[in-house]
Amino acid sequence: MDLKIHSSEQSAALVGRSSLRHDHPLAGSPIGGWTKRVMDILVASAALLCFWPLMLLVALLIKLDDGGPVVFSHKRVGRNRTMFPCLKFRTMAANSAELLRQHLAENPAAQEEWRETQKLKSDPRITVVGRVLRKTSLDELPQLFNVLRGDMSIVGPRPVVTDEIKKYGSDAAFYLMARPGLTGPWQVSGRNDVSYEARVNFDRNYVENWSLLTDISIIVRTVPAVLLAKGY
Length: 232
Hints:
Layout: E1 5-8, H1 33-66, E2 71-77, E3 83-89, H2 96-106, H3 108-117, H4 128-136, H5 143-149, E4 153-155, H6 162-165, H7 172-176, E5 181-183, H8 196-208, H9 212-227
Parallel strand pairs: 1-2, 4-5
Antiparallel strand pairs: 2-3
């Protein structure tokens, strides 16, 4: 089976923060240190052992749908401004860029929605298989490999592209202190039903008040959030 990865890169200036809390040095270790890292490795390894048959099935369905690449790789902003390839099962049509341009050109309301959130609740780019994968969050399973690589954590801020980091303003530094997460406070608090400003506040509060119990709580809450497709 061809598991060719489709990649897309973006570059833009990143916003930092001039004054940080003394106990959260941007250049130091990511929040949680080795305690969080060990948990990430254990959880990601266990999840891959459990879900590899499902991941193989998903890859087959995507390939049979349109014959395109199975995995999509998109550059995201990681800790300390390090860019990394965030992996997902492909959920969009091969000509997604053209479909987006045409849709935004014909729909002023969609333009405003895209400008505010970088997302569309009714996205013409998403395939039939992709819609199911997104609703169940199965498209994000390849990010378990990002976790093992150290690009991401099981729990953390939602990974963003360079254009989005500007929306964090002075709070961008809090995002940059942590590894982005496969799940996080945004995912268990409404997802697309939550404003971008609220999401930024979730990320800042998560970084400022991190604890192992918080991570465990978010992991547990992720299960019903995914099953109920909360905020999809």
